[in-house]
Amino acid sequence: MFRSKFNLKLAAVITAMSLLLNLSSAHAKEITLLNVSYDPTRELYEAVNAQFAKNWKAKTGDEVTINQSHGGSGKQARAVIDGLEADVVTLGLAGDIDAISDKANLLPSNWQKRLPDNSVPYLSTIVLLVRTGNPKKIHDWDDLVKPGVSVVTPNPKTSGGARWNFLAAWGYALKKNGGDEAKANDFISALFKNVPVLDSGARGATTTFVERGIGDVLIAWENEALMARKQFGQDKFEIVYPSISIRAEPPVAWVDKVTSRHGTADVAKAYLEFLYTPAGQEIGAQNFYRPRDPAVTAKYASQFPALPLLTIDGDFGGWKTAEAKFFGDGGVFDKIYQPGS
Amino acid sequence: MFENFGWLSQSQADPRKSATADPPLVRFALIAIAMLFLGLFLFIPVAAVFAQALQHGLGEYLKSIIDPEARSAIRLTLMTAAIAVPLNVLFGVAASWAIARFDFPGKQTLLTLIDIPFSVSPVIAGMMFVLLLGVRAPIGGWLYDHGIRIIFAEPGIVLATIFVTFPLAARELIPIMQAVGSEEEEAAIVLGAGGWQTFLRVTLPNVKWGLLYGMVLCNARAMGEFGAVSVVSGHIRGHTNTMPLYIEIMYNDYHYVAAFAVSSLLTLLAIATLIAKHFLERRVIPVPQKGADEIETKVAA
Amino acid sequence: MASKKNNVLPGFNLTLGFTLAYLGIVVLIPLSTIFLKTFTLTWAEFWHAVMSPRTLAAYRLSFGASLAGALINSVFGFVVAWTLVRYEFPFKKLIDVMVDLPFALPTSVAGITLTAIYAQNGWLGRFLEPHGVKVAFAPLGVVVALTFVGLPFTVRTIQPVLEDLDVEYEEAAATLGAGRLQTFARVIMPALIPALLTGFALAFARALGEYGSVVFISGNMPMRTEVVPLLIMAKLEQFDYAGATAIAVVMLVVSFLLLLGVNILQRWSSQRLAA
Predict the structure, then answer these.
(1) Is A106 among the domain residues?
(2) pLDDT at B283
(3) A325 CB within 8 Å of a chain C CB
(4) CB B131 to CB C33 under 8 A?
(5) How far is the alpha carbon of A168 from chain B, nearest alpha carbon, in Å?
(6) What's the domain count of chain A?
(7) Is residue A306, in this structure, part of any structural domain at all?
(8) C121-155 pLDDT, tens per residue?
(9) Å between B156 CA and nearest CA of chain C
């Protein structure tokens, strides 16, 4: 993907300049990266890409163009497995990058250990979005199973984001009932009885709640809820933070097989490392993702209230276990929808 | 089945004949029912597309259409249609010639096989190209190793589009070719004309409206295909997003005006091709019309 | 191979060869992958994939809603075709052109727009919901979407036959003392039945596979408003390719048999007509 500029005049000028300024590279290279991401990160990575390209040019003199691809997290993972040449993947859950490693062996299985914080540069959590005035008095997960409350959440079978929603509710029920799985099961069944629409993706669910006026409460990622308020009016919706939620961890990784073929290993790694720098963290926070850098976290403290958070690895035994138990064929979610129930 | 798929409009029934005319009340009621039905299922949805596209005025509308990403999607869609439509029309001509002019064993099976893409879900259509040409499949893996990219690149989009529009031109041409009959062509051959000459001078003028309508339909469907293309595109912004995929992305990003502006553009493109077909047809109507009538009388006799 | 009666015409080998090669490359080889993938399942796995209660519920909805949509289109498509052919009224040409639009509009746009119109706060939904008629996010919404996508098929198959129908037969019937309704039932309908069947079958087959528009309007509730193509997507999402192709094979075989059945029925009815 490297292409040299064969503009002689320009090359001559640059050569002269590099001699004068003692620059390391003789002439600028053009590099293209493909970032395969999940649905709601378009604005985040647009901002990241612009800043990173500027930094990279200042540092190396090379022009880097980052192409973006967005779609459902699982669908994007499948595309990479089947040959979409992603230099980096930035997906909604670690399970999807695990699948790329397991099924296509495009990156090592310990990929999560290669970058700080388990390769999760930004966090989010699951919150409840209600209409202004909170007419149904929804304050915690308990309120979602009350009769007459209508809950909107996407289908965890087709939406990676919705799996975090599901686990947050389940985790709450389990904690509340002292680890009694049968009671947690009843809780989650009662919750999904109150769901009138299961959209296939997270954005679809937001649209159903916001534009179609369906439901009293939307279970959503915090960044999605903040984004919806920004898009549709701060006065129209309120965010309710439940007593406990889950730490949503969208991970990032470079895809070794692809970067080595493209010769983009260095720039791909630098791109992802940029996300951890104060500047990268700042962009994340501006796009409503919870930063990890302490200084940036302090700066945006008012935007992201602290609350107890469960974790996928600590409380659910990691994605592989959770996928099989909750969302696999005949798993907990499937059992909610039995004939006659 | 094929006899009735000639969507080519031919002679208008004469409304003046009193014996065959319906009472005004019936006529009015039927028109009202038809318009109510079309209203609910067609006019209102189409009007809604334009209403949403123009909700913030014409300026926003135009801005959304000339956005570089939108332009790239429009370009890719037009390019895809420009490859898929001629190929399928060529196939339609070949298939209709073989089927309408000759008898051979297995003809009925062939006819049914041509229908198959109608009954394949677009999602499945996309998936089967991934199963065949994805990097994990033998053929796909070999191509990939040799630097040939089909899936998640433009050729995959074109292939998926060809599949979903596959039967349209053939379906249009076969019944017309059958209705026109082969007498004129046989006469031409007997009189010493060559095969190509006969085809160009005799066959083509007889079926050109069917050909044109087949192209229009094929084109409309090619530009609008979403499901199959979505599976094989890779969704790389500014590179492998067609208009329908771009619309979905804009909609998901809350850019409703942009989503519906591009939708309305697709609608306008479709209406424009259909109207163009109408005018072309009217301007040159006497010649093929006469031919068709003559042949009809011949067949009837 | 070619029958001797037509053998003065050239090009048989060329055109049939091209037809078969193109059909093979574009349709048959890709389609074979669906079957090959399904063969990787054991019989028990296949049975489990295609016969689970949720899949059965989805078949019921997909077949039921496609049937309803195709029937609605057959009845009203006939009325539309009849008015377009037989009557004159303002904007007829434009309306005629617009009938093809569901063909050109991306199915996702159709789905989004229909949902916006028929949701409880939509242009039409706001009048329907107070009367207890729930369209969006209910099975009725699936029927609406499938009616939309199938509309051109019935209108465009019936229209040309109506145009070709010789009014002399109707005149003759009228001269012989038949009432208008009698003429319609005895003279017009029999000639239209093959076209109606074709239009119905095409609209039905198209509706069975429809995904893009349905996901928006159906609500996707398991056991209630989940269509078969959505189940296939859900299987793919779990990286269960073979399970997805198994369901696809069932749908494919069923709709193929349906098209074939209609083909045979139609040939039979036109033979009876000719006799």
Answers:
(1) yes
(2) 55
(3) no
(4) yes
(5) 24
(6) 2
(7) no
(8) 899 999 998 998 999 999 999 999 999 999 998 99
(9) 12
In this structure, are A99 and A213 located in the same domain? no
Q: What is the CATH number of the domain that holds A74?
A: 3.40.190.10
How far apart CA C112 and CA B274 sit, in angstroms, is: 24
Contact yes or no for A200 and C239 at CB 8 A: no
b/e map A296-320, b = 16+ CB within 10 Å: bbeebeeebeeeebbebeebbeebe
Q: Which chain A residues are Cβ-neighbours of B151 within 8 angstroms?
A: 82-84
C219/A155 CB distance under 8 A: no
Domains and CATH numbers, chain C: 43-274 (1.10.3720.10)
* Interface contact flag, A212 C116, Cβ < 8 Å: yes
A335 vs C: CB within 8 A: no
User: What's the rounded Cα separation, in Å, for the pair C119 and C216?
Assistant: 11
Question: Do B90 and C1 meet the contact criterion of CB atoms below 8 Å apart?
Answer: no
- pLDDT value for B19: 55
Q: Does A212 touch chain C (CB under 8 A)?
A: yes
Q: What pLDDT score was predicted for residue A149?
A: 96
Of A335, A334, A341, A332, the residue nearest A170 (C-alpha):
A332
Judge if ipTM > 0.95: no
Examine the domain organization and report whether A110 and A203 are in the same domain.
no
**Residue ranges making up the domain that contains A54:** 3-122+249-299
- Tell me whether B254 touches chain A (CB under 8 Å): yes
Domains of chain B, each with CATH number or no CATH: 65-300 (1.10.3720.10)
The whole-number average pLDDT for the span A27-49 is 90
Residue C101 — very low, low, confident or very high, per pLDDT cuts 50/70/90?
confident
DSSP H or E segment with residue A36:
strand A29-38
Record: contact B235-A70, CB cut-off 8 A:
yes
pLDDT value at position A218?
97
pLDDT tens, position by position, A198-229: 998 888 899 999 999 999 999 999 999 999 99
